[in-house]
């Protein structure tokens, strides 16, 4: 069997606050295999954002271990974490987070700049990824010229450009209407079929329903980890 | 990678054009004023150096002592204490290159229908070397002219202009105190001395002729001044000592008695003039540097604002794989670009201003490659120095916090 994309063991994260040490995440064990599509759910304050930051190598845990594609990342230095974010993980945010002054192609190509890829190749690959999300004709447009749904597609293209094993999506449909949300989720589903692992944070059940597996957090703990019922039914 | 970052820095500058231009203005004014002030300061130093070298270098002037008759004391040079023999003795000392006894005064010169008042200097041939006079046409008089008291004269440019206009003065005869003098040489142009006196308004004639025909001399053999030139600046203290000792001995002055002559060191006067201009140009440069510093602080200020404004952008870049050093380099590059661009414009304006000053006034302006290089280096240094702190702040941001920033 292939290496698990994500394996966390006894993961915990505490923050210093005025009232003392606050445990945002406690003793989480989770394993996500290559090609899985997992939804992470929970009310705000449940620790799911903290968990996502740890999975995204934006933060380091206070306790426990985290293996990304078999590599122990809990103790890595900041530069090495940056390299992992660049090569192994693609981020999709709720607010799209495109750089407003850059063309769509430059936005998509930005991770390649930090990967040290040549200019010609950057342009080529950016156009290819834009075409893949259906925006091949907008390469030279600025983000402000396109709709929210299109911006999110561009963000997905940017997440894909370094061919990561894992895409982390933090409420990617939170700013979109339901029709556009469906389109974005269809795109994620298609990508997942191509073999990319997707971890998605959401609090909308119908969005979570696109995932094959749903993980719930409450008060910093992982409280349930179940296959999505509708998809289980569909498989029968 | 560098090209991509340069492009991005350029874009960032263009994104807020007004602000970039205003920030740059600080550097423009700073560099411009440094270049202009250094040009003016160095020009002044050059002008003073020219004046000093026109006076002749390493010079001493011995002035004979005063006399006192019935309680009425004359000034220096009134007494007949220095003699031509003193001058000849001093010439034998080590470290002395030229010695010339001098008798001078203002006299009316007459040529045809023109007349003109000028300084007449009676002296011996070493005077020309000591005072760094050149002969542009004709030839100087020699020792034989001094011995025979011939009536020959060397004439300075101002006197030539006023007596002869555009005529060639060589071989013409002028009259000084009724005595005819044949002009055998024309002196090269020198300009003003440190006191602002026109050195070219001069006629030089043999000492003996001057004493007999022009000034008259109640004390044969005595002179008012002796000009002494040392071989080098290093030799001057030794020359001063041995010369004083020699004269005291020759004049039979006892221990504890005052000298019966005065000693003036022209080098000291020249040094103080040079020092004054050096301090002035240093001061000008220092004042100009303050504006460069202010320009640098302006850059730091704007970069800090820029980092705060772009916190979210920094967070995004970090999330997609920018290392701390990438963020640092990006903001440092932006600061550097602003300061170097400002520096180039400032250089341009500073040099333009210096050339304009040169054209509109008679100030001497010296634009040296060194001053341009210094201004450029300092500007780049200012960019890095004042850009580093904001860039470091950007690089040290926590990616999670930065991403959350609105």
From TrEMBL, chain A:
Pfam families: ABC_tran. One of its GO terms (molecular function) is ATP binding. Keywords: ATP-binding, Cell membrane, Membrane, Nucleotide-binding, Transport. SUPFAM superfamilies: P-loop containing nucleoside triphosphate hydrolases. It comes from the Bacteria. Residues 6-235 form the ABC transporter domain. Gene3D superfamilies: P-loop containing nucleotide triphosphate hydrolases. SMART domains: AAA (SM00382). This is ABC transporter ATP-binding protein.
UniProtKB/TrEMBL annotation, chain B:
It is found in: Cell membrane. The chain crosses the membrane at residues 282-307, 327-351, 363-389. It comes from the Bacteria. The keyword ATP-binding does not apply. Residues 20-245 form the MacB-like periplasmic core domain. Keywords: Cell membrane, Membrane, Transmembrane, Transmembrane helix. Pfam families: FtsX, MacB_PCD. InterPro entries: ABC3_permease_C, MacB_PCD, Macrolide_Exporter_MacB. Residues 286-398 form the ABC3 transporter permease C-terminal domain. It is a multi-pass membrane protein. PANTHER family: ABC TRANSPORTER PERMEASE YTRF (PTHR30572:SF4), MEMBRANE COMPONENT OF TRANSPORTER-RELATED (PTHR30572). Belongs to the ABC-4 integral membrane protein family. This is FtsX-like permease family protein. It comes from Candidatus Accumulibacter contiguus.
């Amino acid at each position: 069997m292939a290496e698990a994309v994500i394996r966390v063991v006894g993961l915990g994260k505490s923050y210093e606050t005025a009232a003392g040490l606050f445990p945002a995440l406690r003793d989480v064990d989770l394993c996500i295999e290559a090609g899985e599509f997992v939804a992470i759910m929970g009310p705000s304050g449940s620790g799911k954002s903290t968990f996502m930051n740890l999975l995204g190598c934006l933060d380091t845990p206070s306790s426990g271990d985290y293996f990304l594609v078999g590599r122990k990342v809990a103790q890595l230095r900041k530069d090495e974490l940056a390299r992992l974010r660049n090569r192994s993980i693609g981020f999709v945010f709720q607010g799209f987070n495109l750089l407003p002054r850059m063309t769509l192609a430059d936005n998509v190509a930005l991770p390649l700049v930090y990967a040290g890829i040549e200019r010609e190749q950057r342009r080529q690959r950016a156009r290819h990824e834009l075409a893949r999300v259906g925006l091949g004709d907008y390469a030279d447009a600025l983000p402000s010229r396109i709709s929210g749904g299109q911006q999110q597609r561009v963000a997905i293209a940017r997440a894909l450009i370094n061919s990561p094993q894992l895409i982390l999506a933090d409420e990617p449909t939170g700013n979109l209407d339901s029709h556009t949300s469906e389109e974005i989720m269809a795109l994620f589903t298609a990508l997942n079929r191509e073999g990319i692992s997707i971890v998605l944070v959401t609090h909308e059940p119908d969005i979570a329903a696109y995932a094959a597996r749903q993980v719930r957090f409450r008060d910093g703990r992982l409280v349930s980890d179940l296959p999505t019922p509708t998809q289980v039914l569909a498989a029968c | 990678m560098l090209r991509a970052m340069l492009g991005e820095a350029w874009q960032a500058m263009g994104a807020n054009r007004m602000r970039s231009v205003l920030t740059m203005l600080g550097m423009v004014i700073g560099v411009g004023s440094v270049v202009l002030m250094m040009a003016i300061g160095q020009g002044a130093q050059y002008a003073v150096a020219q004046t000093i070298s026109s006076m002749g270098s390493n010079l001493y002037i011995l002035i004979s002592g005063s006399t006192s008759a019935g309680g009425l004391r004359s000034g220096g040079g009134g007494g007949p204490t220095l003699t031509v023999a003193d001058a000849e003795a001093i010439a034998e000392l080590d470290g002395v290159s030229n010695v010339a006894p001098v008798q001078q005064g203002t006299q009316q010169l007459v040529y045809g229908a023109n007349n003109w008042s000028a300084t007449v200097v009676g002296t011996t041939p070493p005077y020309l070397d000591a005072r760094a006079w050149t002969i542009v046409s004709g030839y100087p008089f020699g020792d034989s002219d001094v011995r025979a008291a011939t009536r020959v004269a060397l004439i300075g440019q101002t006197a030539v202009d006023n007596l002869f206009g555009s005529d060639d003065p060589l071989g013409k005869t002028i009259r000084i105190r009724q005595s005819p003098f044949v002009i055998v040489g024309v002196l090269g142009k020198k300009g003003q001395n440190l006191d602002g006196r026109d050195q070219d308004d001069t006629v030089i004639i043999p000492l003996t002729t001057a004493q007999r025909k022009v000034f008259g001399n109640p004390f044969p053999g005595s002179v008012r001044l002796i000009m002494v030139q040392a071989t080098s600046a290093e030799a001057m203290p030794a020359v001063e000592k041995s010369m004083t000792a020699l004269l005291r001995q020759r004049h039979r002055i006892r221990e504890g008695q005052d000298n019966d002559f005065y000693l003036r060191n022209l080098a000291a006067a020249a040094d103080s003039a040079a020092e004054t201009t050096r301090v002035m140009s240093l001061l000008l440069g220092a004042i100009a540097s303050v504006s460069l510093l202010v320009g640098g602080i302006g850059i730091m200020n704007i970069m800090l604002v820029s980092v705060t404004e772009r916190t979210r952008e920094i967070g995004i870049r970090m999330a997609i794989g920018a290392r701390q050093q990438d963020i640092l380099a990006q903001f440092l590059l932006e600061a550097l670009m602003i300061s170097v661009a400002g520096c180039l414009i400032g250089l341009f304006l500073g040099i333009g201003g210096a050339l304009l000053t040169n054209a509109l006034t008679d100030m001497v302006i010296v634009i040296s490659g060194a001053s341009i290089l210094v201004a450029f280096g300092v500007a780049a240094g200012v960019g890095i120095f004042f850009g580093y702190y904001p860039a470091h702040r950007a690089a040290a941001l926590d990616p999670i916090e930065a991403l959350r920033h609105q």
